[in-house]
Amino acid sequence: MDSISDPPFHKAYKILFEKTQNNEENDLDSELVVIEECELPVIDLSRLEESDQVAREECKSDIARASQEWGFFQVVKHGISSEIFSRLRCEQEKVFKQPFDKKTKEDKFLNFSAGSYRWGAPNATCIRQLSWSEAFHIPLTDILGSSGSNNLSSSIEQFATTVSSLAQTLADILAEKMGIKSNFFEENCLPNTCYLRLNRYPPCPIASEIHGLMPHTDSDFLTILYQDQVGGLQLVKDRKWIAVKPNPDALIINIGDLFQAWSNGVYKSVEHRVVTNPKVERFSTAYFFCPSNDTVIESCKEPSVYRKFSFREYRQQVRDDVQKLGSKIGLPRFLTYEGKTT
């Protein structure tokens, strides 16, 4: 049974559970093999501050290479102390331990916008589409304007301030390695368009059959993630699911759909998921580097693999697909004729 603080998964998805018990569905993504836990490429960002230009350029090249080959990488020496991570985890745990009714009806106890709490997967039509997780979806403007009104706000603000600056730096580096220098990201990815998600993955009694977060790609330019030591993040590489080994000192960076489209397919937005754990809860904090809805995404090289589209159009297409199909289609919807034939 769900605890008083957990979302009512069993009650809300009773029919889906019954289908599983009747063996109408198979285990998760059996067509892809899960290989051993491995460590993502690790990049020491302190090299960007070196006086030696060769060292700086090598670091930038490492970032671009990982974005092309993996779509994921880790950064260390990023400016966030282990103390901030510990404090954030502690306060995050307190917030999610609030009674479920309070989380859904009284968002103001966090001093964030009402309606920030989400859980499960409202459009799930089968057990594979269910996400056994809950989250607070918080606009960056709410965080930066909180003035450290409580311990959680203070910890989040310190985290968000650092990662938002880091996202701009990484985006500029990736653009530079494409041979492009512009103020595109600085002008379009502002605090009022970016956001943070505080995630919790409760223990799941049938962990082999339910995702913590179903397979997907991110719909932003970049995502910066801090995960705890429980593990559970997996990504697809060479048609295999790779389990990402937790690193207590690292932030995980992954390329989003918009960067793949903008880079004309050079940087890869890779499918990833979170698997559940039958006994241990998992926490993570993710920052999403997004543009305004009116921002037009256009491939920076010709011939274009993807047609031009606004972020609003992209988000609407994703919402429509999820509502109709239960899952996201994403960039394949926006391929040009040339992209479809390559």
Descriptive report:
- The termini are far apart.
- Helix 4 (82-96) packs across helix 7.
- Helices cover 33% and strands 21% of the residues.
- It has helices at 9-12, 14-21, 53-69, 82-96, 100-105, 140-144, 151-176, 184-188, 257-262, 311-325, 337-341, and strands spanning 33-38, 42-44, 72-76, 117-119, 134-139, 195-201, 211-216, 222-227, 233-237, 240-244, 251-255, 272-275, 282-289, 296-297, 309-310.
- The protein is built from 11 helices and 15 strands.
- It has 342 residues and is of the alpha+beta class.
- Strands 2-3-11-8-13-6-5-4 form an 8-stranded mixed sheet.
Essential attributes:
globular; alpha+beta; 8-stranded mixed beta sheet; 5-stranded mixed beta sheet; 15 strands; 342 residues; 11 helices
Please render the helix and strand layout as text.
Blueprint: H1 9-12, H2 14-21, E1 33-38, E2 42-44, H3 53-69, E3 72-76, H4 82-96, H5 100-105, E4 117-119, E5 134-139, H6 140-144, H7 151-176, H8 184-188, E6 195-201, E7 211-216, E8 222-227, E9 233-237, E10 240-244, E11 251-255, H9 257-262, E12 272-275, E13 282-289, E14 296-297, E15 309-310, H10 311-325, H11 337-341
Parallel strand pairs: 1-10, 2-3
Antiparallel strand pairs: 3-11, 4-5, 5-6, 6-13, 7-12, 8-11, 8-13, 9-10, 9-12, 14-15
Helix pairs in contact: 4-7
